[in-house]
Amino acid sequence: MPAPVVVAEVVRSGFVEGHHHGSVVALAADGATAWSVGEVTAAVLPRSCNKPIQALGMVRLGLDLPPDLLALACASHSGEAFHLDGVRRILALGDLDESALRNVRDYPLDDAAKVAAIRAGEEPRTLFMNCSGKHAAMLLTCVVNGWDTETYLSPEHPLQQAIAETFAEVTGEPVEVTAVDGCGAPLLSTSLTGLARAFRALAVATDGPEHRIAEAIRSHPAYVSGTTRDELKLLTAVPGGIGKAGAEACYAVALPDGRAWALKIDDGGARARPVVMAEALRRDGVPTEPGVDAGALDDTGVVPVLGAGEPVGEIRAAF
After folding, report:
1. Which domains are seen in the chain, by residue range?
2. Three-class SS of residue 23?
3. What are the φ and ψ backbone dihedral angles of 201, each rounded to 5 degrees?
């Protein structure tokens, strides 16, 4: 492995008190690597950045959802009311309910939704967990194909085997590692370059399953994350963009012209993730392009450092 590369600094009262190391890759419109920082060809676990690719595999297997629910199949949702209703709708299409979900139990990601659930006396539920949209879509795909729904999380299940084949195809790389994701589903490895390549394939598609996934994300970005998330702010600031963040500070974004970016912060520090992506897009001139809300895009990369409850510094890009 090459020496770690600093991609962000923690600045407090003008003093750099810490650093985040990581890697970033940018693809040009033709799919070639335009520039990179750090290690971008070794295998990583992109976590929930994989979800749109997993959803692509499911659509190829016959999953047929309206755009809002297809976006939810790609989501790490916040557990807001419309997310929970959407998961129930996906399950109902297969005559299933929450009891069929095999993801872990959790509270909603959104703070307000979590507080409301606790005040209502709710315990952690599989429905609340941010991956329940993906799991509901996996279950429905099994129903469509007549496959067992009890064992859908097994890497040997025909659903997961088919998803892995799609994943390897669109990343352009063999799957070196199959791990277990936080939700319990198989987690497939690729490099940051492979991840960017896969998002590019979705973003440039003009028809077929790839186009359906991209259009679902474009038309319903709040279903992919939530109403208060930095991902939503970025996608609404950049017309035609698609993107997905993942745990351990992974992030991938692609545009219809073929440009794509993928990053990972080595220590998993989520606070650096949007800062580094905003800088990567600035480096390639995205804020100055027609239709882009430059102010909103820049705002996605503003992460303050607090002192006495007030901003006294920031997380800033350093590459």
Report:
1. 6-65+158-317 (3.40.710)
2. strand
3. -60, -35
| Cα dihedral across residues 149, 218, 213, 25: positive or negative | negative
Phi, psi of 275 (to 5 degrees): -65, -45
Going by the DSSP 8-state scheme, the letter that residue 286 receives in this structure is G
Tokens of residue 185, six digits: 């589903």
- Dig out the tokens for 100 from the structure: 């069929």
- Dist CA 165 CA 57 (whole Å): 8
CA–CA gap between residue 265 and residue 97 (Å, rounded): 37
Residue 299 has pLDDT above 80, yes or no: yes
Q: Which residue in 10, 9, 42 sits closest to 23, CA to CA?
A: 42
- Give pTM, 2 decimals: 0.97
Written as one letter, the residue type at 298 is D
Answer with the residue of higher pLDDT: 1 or 227: 227
Helix (H, G, I), strand (E, B) or coil at 253: strand
Tell me if residue 111 falls in helix, strand or coil.
helix
Which residue is associated with the tokens 């669109």? 170
Q: Is the pLDDT of residue 1 over 70?
A: no
> Helices in 179-272 by DSSP H: which ranges?
192-204, 208-219, 221-224, 230-237
What is the predicted pLDDT for the residue at 181? 98
The tens digit of pLDDT for each residue in 284-293 reads 999 999 999 9
Q: Where are the alpha helices (DSSP H) in 66-207?
A: 67-73, 81-93, 111-119, 132-145, 158-171, 192-204
